[in-house]
Design goal:
This protein has 173 residues and is an alpha/beta fold. It has three helices and seven strands; from the N terminus they run αβαββββαββ. The strands form two sheets. The protein has a four-stranded mixed β-sheet, covered by helices on one side. A three-stranded mixed β-sheet has the order 5-7-6, with helices on one face.
Length: 173
């Protein structure tokens, strides 16, 4: 009887609570030192909060991106999902493509869905897919290859983005 009274007096839940903000994404990593070089030196992330023997976290664009070597499953070839994406400006999109090329990281072509935005894909060394999304202001966006919401298979060949080595060029002092 006491159990019944407790459930009757409890207010009924009418739906999910509003979430406060995005916290982090955690990605599988084949080699932690390699991943730390990539997320720190290639993507410019700041080592943040955790730097352990099997997991490290970076702050990139105001979001924590964790990379770990234990308890992982990896994205299989030919898949676009899951992936992580970042908003970038038009100049930053071009600069990142040039920088990744200098680092030996293959990138997709620029492409668009509606002729206004510009997108580009690349992978980290472990094969995790990363999207850069320029919402507007990219000159010539209307002339880029057009693709559906899912760009892979029509506009982008995500398999061509896999690689085994990258380099971090020396920056001028």
């Amino acid at each position: 009887m006491a159990e019944s009274n407790r459930s009757e007096s409890k207010p009924r839940v009418s739906g999910p609570p509003k979430l406060m903000s995005f916290s982090h994404a955690a990605l599988p990593c084949r080699d932690l030192e390699e991943g730390k070089r990539f997320y720190g030196e290639v993507l410019g992330g700041e080592l943040h909060i955790v730097d352990g023997s099997t997991f490290a976290a970076f702050r990139i664009a105001g979001v924590d991106i964790g990379i770990g070597t234990e308890g992982c499953s990896y994205i299989t070839p030919s898949n676009e999902y899951p992936h992580i994406g970042f908003f970038v400006g038009p100049e930053e999109l071009v600069q990142m493509k040039e920088w990744l090329t200098e680092c030996g990281v293959p990138t997709s072509n620029f492409w668009t869905r509606g002729g206004v935005e510009a997108l580009m894909f690349f992978r980290d060394p472990s094969g995790n897919l990363i999207e850069l999304y320029c919402e507007r202001g990219f000159k010539g966006a209307q002339d880029l290859p057009h693709g559906p919401p899912r760009g892979h298979g029509t506009t982008v060949d995500v398999d061509a983005l896999r690689y085994t080595h990258f380099r971090v060029p020396k920056r001028p002092s």
